[in-house]
Amino acid sequence: MEHTSLRGLAELLKSGRASSRELCQDYLDRIERLNPTLNAFITVDRDRTLAEAAAADHLREQGRAGPLTGVPIAHKDIFCTEGWPTTCASRMLANFVSPYDAHVIERCKAAGLPSLGKTNMDEFAMGSSNETSYFGPVKNPWDPRAVPGGSSGGSAAAVAARLAPAATGTDTGGSIRQPAAFCGITGLKPTYGVVSRYGLVAFASSLDQGGPMAPSAEDCALLMNVIAGFDPRDSTSLERPAEDYTRLLDAPLQGLRIGLPREYFAQGLAADVARAIEAALAEFERLGARSVELSLPNSALSVPVYYVLAPAEASSNLARYDGVRYGYRTPEYADLTEMYEKTRAEGFGAEVKRRILIGTYVLSHGYYDAYYLQAQRVRRLIARDFAAAFTQCDVILGPTAPTTAFDLGAKRDDPIEMYLSDIYTIAVNLAGLPALSIPCGFGADGRPVGLQLIGDYFAEARLLNVAHQYQRATDWHTRQPPALG
Ligand code: GLN
Predict the structure, then answer these.
(1) Which of 57, 158, 205, 282 is most deeply packed, by most CB within 10 A?
(2) Dist. CA 477–CA 186, nearest whole Å
(3) Using 50, 70 and 90 to split pLDDT, how confident is the model at 1?
(4) Are 343 and 322 in contact (CB under 8 A)?
(5) Which pLDDT band, with edges at 50, 70 and 90, does 485 fall under?
(6) Would you call 151 a catalytic residue per the annotation?
(7) pLDDT above 90: residue 476
(8) Residue 484 pLDDT
C-alpha cells in the first residue's frame, strides 16, 4: 500500500478501493515489523483497532461517513483512552486504564478515526529526547543512533516511519514541534485554549496544549477540524465559533510579511540548520513574501522562566499520584507516610523527581516571590515582545531547534543542555501562541531540519496556509527514511 496523505487515504476509502479494516491491517503489520526496532508504540491492540475500523466501515456503509471516517491515527500515551492503557510512559501509571476518554479522543472517535495504539513519550511529557520513558527510548527512523526528540517522540517517529498516517501530540514547551523537526514531519501547537485539555494527563496546565502531527500541513489542518473546539469540562477551553482550518490553505503568499527575530539566528544555532532555514526563507520570498527583521528582546529568558513555572505547576499536578486513588502503590509499607514515600520514590523516574523538587522549592514560603512571581512577570514581558512583533509582521520564522537530532545518550546526563534544545519553542507556550514546525531540509549528518512558523493568537489557519504553500513548492515533507522500506 502506498503511504499517502490523509486526503488520499480518505479518497481511497470513499471510492471503496480499500476498507478501514484493510487500511488498519496494513498499518498494524508495519507496526509489528518495525516497532521492535523503533519502540514508537507503548501499546498496540490489534483486535481493538480492527473493531474500531469495522465500526468506521459500518458508518460508511450506512452513508454516515465524515471526511476522515476510517482513516487511522495513533495517540500519544498522555491522552486518556477508555479501554486502552494510559501510561504517560511512567511506572506510576504503567497499569492504569482510564474509565473515560479525553475530549480529543472523543472527537476522533466521533469522526470515525480508529486508533492504531498509544505512542511512547518522555515520562509525564518531561523531556526533549524520549529518553525519560519508563518503556525505553524511541529511535529516530532517519538514524537509529539519534533521538526522535521529545516529549512526543513516539508520535513523531511513528508518523515519520509511516507506522501511522497521523498522530496526536502535546506541547508544553516544544513537545510537538521539536520531535516533528527531528523526525522530518509537520506538527502544530495550537493557541492555548483551542484544543481541550480534558482527559490529557496534566503536566503544566497553563502551558499544555494538544495538537496534530502528520506529514503535511494539509493533513494537520484536516486533523484540527476534528480535534479543536469548545469543551466546558476544560475551564480554559475557549468558546469560539467552529473553524474550518483548511479554508485558507490555497491563499497565495503575495505580500506576506515574515518576521525574523534576530535572537533566533544568533550564537548557538548550528551552521547547517541555519543554511536550511535561509534556503527556506528564499523560497518564501520567491512565493511573494518579504522579510522584516525584528527583535524579541526577552526571548533569552524563556528557558529559565519555563523551568520555574512548568515545575511549579507539575509539582502541584503530580501530587495526585500518592498510591491511594489510582496508579502504582508500593507493595510493602509500615504506615501511611511510608506508603506515600515509597510509592513516589519507586513510581517516578529521575527527571520527574527533579521537576517536583524544583517546583516545590520555587513555590515554598520565602522563595515564592523571588522565583515564581518574578517568573510570572517575565512571562508577561515575553508575551508583550510577541505582541509588538505582530504589529510588524504576519508570521515569525526561525529554526524549531538549534541542531538536528542529537545522538541517544548525548545529553542524558546534562539536564541544562537538554533544556536548551527547546530554546526556540518555549516562549511560544509562555505566550500561549500557535506555532508549527515543517521539514525544510537536512543537516550535515543527514538528519532532518525543522522550520518554525509562529502566528498571532488564533492564526492557525494562516500558519497552515503559509506551510502548505511552501509544501506545494518543495518536497521535503514527502521524503521518507530510506533504510526502513
Ligand atoms: N522539553 C520540555 C520539557 O522537558 C518541553 C516538554 C513538553 O513540551 N511537554 O519540559
Answers:
(1) 158
(2) 8
(3) low
(4) yes
(5) low
(6) yes
(7) yes
(8) 76
